[in-house]
Predict the structure.
Amino acid sequence: MIVVSDTSPLTALLTVGEATLLPNLFHEVIVPEAVRRELTRNHSPLPDWLRTATVQDTAQVGKYAEIVDAAEAEAIELARELQADRLLIDERKGRKLAVQEGVAVIGLLGVVLLAKRKVLIPSARTLLARLDQEAGMYLTPDIRDAALNSVGE
């Protein structure tokens, strides 16, 4: 399974030291150049398992960039070009645009729940709390509770 990632989910996982969940969940984790540049501002060096790829259709990226930021635009287009299984993205506008373009999405919450289901983490609740406190990932109580309930927590 190939996942292309936007910046914020990777940044959050790197911040809490849980980025290795991604290569354990997905066969390949790829970011476009714009995401790599954003990541290296605060997280250098990047993990060896993280691959960078160049978007081919820069005109399409330009069209997407009228709606979302440059890194999101590149991530959406790269996921489309590579026919990735998922685009890892949390921003609402970016998710909506990706889905409109036929790209399947997963968010950081989905990654945490998948990791719990695959027994890669002992507690989704604990990881979500760390992501909230250390990386600024906010979930409404209703969404958090429904998600935790779905994995028996």
Q: What stands out?
A: The first helix runs from residue 7 to 15. The chain is about 55% helix and 10% strand. The first strand starts at residue 2 and ends at 5.
